[in-house]
């Protein structure tokens, strides 16, 4: 069987590609940060359901984020971004969400037009999670087959097979997958494989009070997301944009994608992620060519030498 | 709301998704502000000025829902000519008695009722937090009033209201609250525009709004707005309180309060209510309109439920067994009594006052001076370990080896480990099934009290002492089940519902309650929750299988009515105000009220009904009087009785404030309750000297990640790690001024305590310019204590004890302090630091500054001076 030309990049339905026959529709998350209230119920529900160990009792001083990052012990992570914006800064359309936060000046707060007397302020919140990439480099590099593609198109680590080699960690373009200290194995979001297999909603989406985290067939979610962006644009929230929804992007689109209210970097997301194994065929081809060239050179040397 | 009630906030987000505009007013930028369309930073403690500004905006621009206001509120009622407003009395209403710091309310009454409706002196009402009993019905007032339907009479409520709030202009709002006038007008216009025939607005507050020395008047101001806009008794309207726990509505309906009995019957006072008749007559006012007139049946049936066969009409249903109040038995008075050795034993059930109550040090010193203390909780909390691990142990004030209190810690079952009901803010009772058995020795409250009662009765069996009769005669026989003899919760619900004594038949409605001993009712307002012998609170019919009111989901008191006073959803002639807001209406063909909800009106009383001269009780309610539990059938824009600090809300500064009251010479609520006890103190405020010793305002509230005093969150790892340390939020400006560094330490000093916290410097806090002065506000979470996985100093330690006069709620959302960089001292040096601040601020423990601002009390206004010079305005 010929491999799909898109097996390592480009649009693809990953479950059939991985050999599943009669696979159900690809399932995923759409995380709409425009309605996230930063309650962290997703983090707690994930830990409770998946029995994820504690991730430390440290005050990080990063606004209300004391989780810090997606790690082996935090499979959902709510980022909090406090954004000051002086007035006059091109912040999208008027009424686009920037908030007045009166700072003292010569005038009563909010009265003065200048940056000194008025600061627009936003507090962005976003629940981050494993992206369950269409082209998952972690899966490509896993030597034991611990990482596998499920029938739902998601990517899951089998903890009883993982040998802790750590290749997946450097392969992930988002820095999601992580090795657990004192355990050595790699851990990350399973998109609640056990729950969705039983027809249930993943714990985080189930717990989310505002439907910021939505779970469902990816096709449906992409439609819903496009409609939501259009609505927000209509209401003047010009900065609303999707992230990870495009099957043509560097990872072939994410199984977990987002609606953001600013550039991805603001949330700590790579602006243009690329599957780290994208160039593998090319590299192998080049390696093969190099090997051939070397062999040819060696042959030439012998041939030449004999002459 | 997103911080403290994230699950409820989903509906705000849903409304926003449908196009609603969300405003958020808060001293600090919170998660709610982040999702709001407009955020208005406000100086903590200035809410009456803001809401008063909205009232003025409505009245000045005549934006009130005039037909509703005229027909359904007391706007047209004429008030006594002896009434003098604060605007004419420089911060005092007429009737102020400087001796007791309370009001004589005769002059506040409706014209012609000065003598018979006046509640006279209100100092005792304050001590007994009498305002609480009005949660199910209005205060007593005569039903026959004089009205001016043109609203032009200078002493009609409408004109009084207009004059009273005339100074609350957008400029004044800006000056007092620090909210720019444009921002304020945007809010006022949006609020009023969303009201009228076609639209309604709901006011939802959380209990932080009540925790002020003028807390009740905050809510009153909101109520005035809602009445003016016609937002009461209509779908999508109302005033709802989001409580700090799951069933706080339930714990006032069937109270855990010293001054109430079930169904808002007042606890009798030893001097005023020596007999059953006198007690009952004090509940229902002779000549009063409405359903509260049947109070005798509710009271008799309650005593019948308590004492069963022993309660007979001949012995006044064992009324003599009821405990009596002798004065203030509120939680703060109790704590001071503990310190003074007047209280011997104490039960704490799911409460952690060592962290959660104001003046933590007083709480802990009080509990350290008992004979015994019983703590029932899910986790080992600070209120059980204060004797060996508390700030006072560190300072040497409590010595574990010498602490006399014997603490009994009893593990409690959580809400998933026992069955019962939750009553939520809409008065909806929802039955809970038990999901799992409680672990180990953990038991339900029901089990604890039932078996405690059995054992006490066993110990007293055969006693001839009269004092033991009350316990021995109790009807104390509930069916039990299981290995631990758990009482059957449904049997208790059945008794709460009430039943016919002779047959055991559960009552269907409180109208069936009798005063002859033939019925027993545990809580008359809950009557019907077990109608037909069925647990109505357990009903779970899907909303897809019934109309949008969903009357078959759970059960709401009274009578499964989802919206109170819903007669007001129809116009005076009984027609819906609009098709869109159709809810309950008069069906002339059928000759009765009908609609989606249970009509809150006598079913066949036509809109045209007018009571005969002198009628009282339900008969006195006219066909267009929707407020059937009010003595005059009207919604009260003006409260002639029942609110102890004034018939109208007016702006006073908090007890501790860096700002001089911009409206009156009187600085703070003149009727606030202050305890002159050596442990208590109040930081000086202008015009007192030394107020600059505590230059900053601090305010406290909740984080989403933790629950109240932290007993259920600091002990649970997935929650504890989300907010692992005590911190203080400060603005960059204050950080620069006070020398604070992000993630460094700071300590905060008040006249009571010093606490330390990590510093979060954030733009979410902002200094406000108020009356030409910069006011810095800092914010603290109040979740931390010294037990659990994550610990920290308790913010509530900073507060003193100053109470609202109506319900004795503490002012625990605002105080003044100093903020200094670095960690606090430890051991005795800590006490030295507080003492030094007290000395510099001129605080003498036990001698609080007078509640009356020196020079504030103007010479008594002449009796005819009401509104002098303002009538024409």
Task: Give the gist of this structure.
Chain A is α+β, with helices and mostly antiparallel strands. Chain A has helices at 14-17, 41-50, 137-141, 167-171, 193-197, 203-207, 218-234, 280-306; strands at residues 27-32, 76-86, 99-102, 118-129, 147-149, 155-157, 178-179, 186-187, 213-217, 241-243, 256-260. A 4-stranded mixed beta sheet of chain A has the order 9-1-11-10.
Structure description:
The complex is a heterodimer of chains A (307) and B (873). With 307 residues, chain A is α+β, with helices and mostly antiparallel strands. Chain A folds into two domains: 14-86 and 117-276, Alpha-Beta Plaits, CATH 3.30.70; 277-307. Chain A is 25% helix and 18% strand. Chain A has helices spanning 14-17, 41-50, 137-141, 167-171, 193-197, 203-207, 218-234, 280-306, and strands spanning 27-32, 76-86, 99-102, 118-129, 147-149, 155-157, 178-179, 186-187, 213-217, 241-243, 256-260. In chain A, the strands form four sheets. In chain A, strands 9-1-11-10 form a four-stranded mixed sheet. In chain A, strands 2-4-3 form a three-stranded antiparallel sheet. In chain A, strand 5 and strand 6 (155-157) form a beta hairpin. The longest helix of chain A is centred in the C-terminal third of the chain and has 27 residues, at 280-306. In chain A, 43% of the residues are buried. Residues 86-119 of chain A have low confidence and may be disordered. A six-stranded mixed sheet of chain B has the order 23-25-24-30-22-28. A three-stranded parallel sheet of chain B has the order 9-10-11. Chain B has 23 helices and 30 strands. Chain B is α/β, with parallel strands linked by helices. Among the domains of chain B are: 1-41, no CATH class; 43-133 and 143-242, Dimethylsulfoxide Reductase, domain 2; 331-419 and 439-467, Rossmann fold (3-Layer(aba) Sandwich); 566-626, no CATH class; 673-841, Beta Barrel (Barwin-like endoglucanases). Chain B is globular. In chain B, helix 3 crosses helix 8 (181-193) and helix 3 runs parallel beside helix 9. Chains A and B meet through helix 2, strand 3 and strand 4 of A and helix 1, helix 2, strand 2 and helix 21 of B.
């Amino acid at each position: 069987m010929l491999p799909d030309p898109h097996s390592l990049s480009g649009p693809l339905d990953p479950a059939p590609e991985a050999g599943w026959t009669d696979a159900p529709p690809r399932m995923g998350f759409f995380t709409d940060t425009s309605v996230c209230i930063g309650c962290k119920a997703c983090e707690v529900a994930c830990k409770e359901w998946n029995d994820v160990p504690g991730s430390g009792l440290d005050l990080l001083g990063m606004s209300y984020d004391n989780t810090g990052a997606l790690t082996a012990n935090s499979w959902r992570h709510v980022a909090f971004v406090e954004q000051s914006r002086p007035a006059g800064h091109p912040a999208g359309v008027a009424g686009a969400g920037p908030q007045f936060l009166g700072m003292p000046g010569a005038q009563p707060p909010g009265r003065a037009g200048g940056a000194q007397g008025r600061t627009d302020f936003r507090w962005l919140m976003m629940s981050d999670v494993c992206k369950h990439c269409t082209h998952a480099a972690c899966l490509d590099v896993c030597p034991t087959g611990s990482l596998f593609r499920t029938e739902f198109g998601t990517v899951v680590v089998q903890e009883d097979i993982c040998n802790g080699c750590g290749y997946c960690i450097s392969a992930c373009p988002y820095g999601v997958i992580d090795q657990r200290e004192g355990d050595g194995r790699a851990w990350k979001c399973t998109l609640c494989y056990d729950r969705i297999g039983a027809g249930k909603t993943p714990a985080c989406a189930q717990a989310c009070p505002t439907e910021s985290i939505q779970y469902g067939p990816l096709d449906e979610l992409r439609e819903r997301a496009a409609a939501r962006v259009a609505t927000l644009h209509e209401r003047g929230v010009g900065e609303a944009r999707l992230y990870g929804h495009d099957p043509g992007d560097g990872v072939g689109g994410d199984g977990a994608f987002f609606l953001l209210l600013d550039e991805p970097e603001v949330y700590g997301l790579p602006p243009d992620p690329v599957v780290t194994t994208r160039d593998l065929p090319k590299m192998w081809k080049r390696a093969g060519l190099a090997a051939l060239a070397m062999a040819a050179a060696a042959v030439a040397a012998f041939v030449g030498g004999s002459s | 709301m997103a911080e403290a009630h994230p699950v409820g906030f989903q509906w705000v987000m849903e409304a926003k998704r449908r196009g609603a505009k969300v405003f958020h007013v808060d001293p600090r930028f919170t998660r709610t502000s982040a999702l709001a369309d407009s955020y208005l930073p406000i100086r903590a403690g200035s809410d009456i000025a803001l809401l008063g500004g909205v009232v003025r905006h409505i009245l000045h621009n005549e934006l009130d829902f005039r037909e509703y206001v005229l027909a359904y509120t007391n706007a047209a009622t004429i008030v006594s000519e002896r009434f003098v407003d604060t605007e004419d009395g420089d911060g005092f209403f007429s009737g102020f008695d400087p001796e007791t710091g309370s009001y004589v309310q005769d002059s506040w009454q409706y014209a012609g009722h000065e003598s018979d409706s006046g509640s006279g002196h209100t100092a005792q009402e304050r001590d007994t937090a009498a305002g609480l009993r009005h949660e199910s019905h209005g205060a007593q007032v005569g039903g026959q009033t004089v009205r001016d339907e043109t609203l032009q009479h200078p002493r009609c409520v409408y004109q009084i209201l207009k004059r009273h709030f005339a100074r609350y202009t957008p400029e004044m709002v800006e000056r007092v609250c620090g909210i720019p006038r444009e921002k304020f007008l945007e809010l006022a216009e949006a609020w009023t525009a969303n009201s009228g025939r076609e639209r309604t607005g709901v006011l939802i507050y959380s209990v932080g709004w009540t925790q002020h020395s003028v807390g009740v008047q905050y809510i009153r101001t909101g109520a005035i707005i809602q009445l003016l806009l016609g937002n009461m008794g209509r779908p999508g309207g109302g005033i709802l309180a989001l409580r700090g726990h799951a069933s706080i509505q339930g714990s006032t309906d069937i109270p855990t309060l010293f001054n109430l009995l079930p169904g808002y019957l007042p606890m009798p006072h030893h001097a005023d209510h020596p007999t059953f008749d006198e007690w009952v007559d004090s509940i229902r006012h002779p000549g009063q309109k409405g359903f509260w007139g049947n109070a005798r049946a509710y009271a008799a049936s309650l005593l019948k439920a308590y004492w069963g066969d022993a309660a007979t009409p001949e012995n006044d249903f064992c009324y003599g067994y009821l405990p009596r109040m002798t004065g203030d038995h509120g939680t703060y008075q109790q704590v001071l009594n503990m310190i003074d050795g007047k209280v011997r034993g104490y039960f704490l059930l799911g409460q952690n006052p060592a962290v959660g109550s104001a003046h933590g040090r007083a709480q802990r010193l009080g509990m350290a001076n008992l004979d015994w203390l019983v703590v029932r909780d899910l986790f080992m909390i600070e209120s059980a370990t204060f004797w060996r691990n508390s700030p006072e142990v560190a300072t040497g004030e409590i010595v574990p080896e010498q602490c006399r209190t014997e603490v009994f810690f009893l593990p409690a079952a959580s809400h998933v480990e026992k069955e019962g009901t939750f009553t939520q803010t809409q008065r909806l009772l929802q039955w809970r099934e038990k999901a799992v058995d409680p672990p180990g020795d953990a038991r339900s409250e029901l089990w604890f009290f039932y078996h405690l009662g059995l054992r006490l009765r066993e110990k007293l069996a055969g006693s001839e002492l009269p004092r033991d009769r009350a316990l021995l005669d109790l009807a104390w026989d509930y069916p039990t089940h299981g290995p631990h003899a758990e009482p059957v919760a449904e049997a208790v619900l059945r008794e709460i519902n009430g039943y016919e004594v002779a047959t055991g038949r559960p009552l269907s409605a409180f109208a069936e309650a009798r005063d002859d001993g033939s019925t027993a009712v545990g809580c008359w307002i809950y009557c019907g929750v077990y109608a037909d012998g069925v647990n109505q609170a357990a009903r779970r019919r899907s909303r897809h299988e019934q109309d949008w009111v969903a009357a078959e989901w759970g059960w709401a008191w009274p009578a499964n009515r989802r919206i109170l006073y819903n007669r007001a959803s129809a116009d005076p002639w009984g027609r819906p105000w609009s098709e869109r807001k159709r809810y309950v209406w008069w069906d002339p063909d059928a000759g009765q009220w009908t609609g989606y909800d249970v009509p809150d009106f006598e079913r066949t009383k036509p809109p045209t009904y007018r009571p005969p001269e002198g009628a009282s009780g339900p008969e006195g309610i006219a066909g267009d009087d929707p407020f059937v539990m009010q003595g005059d059938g009207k919604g009260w824009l003006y409260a002639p009785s029942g609110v102890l600090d004034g018939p109208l809300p007016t702006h006073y500064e908090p007890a501790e404030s860096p700002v001089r009251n911009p409206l009156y010479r009187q600085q703070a609520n003149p009727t606030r309750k202050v305890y002159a006890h050596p442990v208590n103190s109040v930081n000086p405020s202008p015009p007192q000297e030394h107020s600059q010793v505590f230059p900053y305002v601090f305010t406290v509230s909740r984080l989403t990640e933790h629950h109240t005093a932290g007993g259920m969150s600091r002990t649970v790892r997935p929650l504890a790690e989300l907010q692992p340390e005590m911190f203080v939020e400060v603005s960059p400006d204050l950080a620069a001024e006070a020398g604070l560094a992000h993630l460094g330490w700071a300590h905060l000093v008040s006249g009571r305590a010093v606490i330390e916290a990590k510093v979060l410097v954030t733009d979410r806090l902002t200094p406000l310019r108020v009356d030409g002065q910069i006011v810095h506000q800092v914010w603290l979470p109040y979740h931390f204590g010294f037990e659990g996985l994550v610990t920290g100093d308790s913010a509530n330690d900073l507060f003193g004890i100053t109470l609202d006069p109506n319900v004795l709620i503490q002012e625990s959302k605002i105080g003044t302090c100093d903020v200094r960089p670095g960690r606090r001292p430890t051991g005795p040096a800590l006490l030295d630091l507080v003492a030094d601040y007290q000395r510099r601020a001129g605080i003498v423990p036990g001698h609080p500054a007078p509640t009356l601002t020196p020079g504030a009390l103007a010479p008594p206004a002449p009796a005819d001076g009401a509104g002098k010079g303002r009538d024409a305005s």
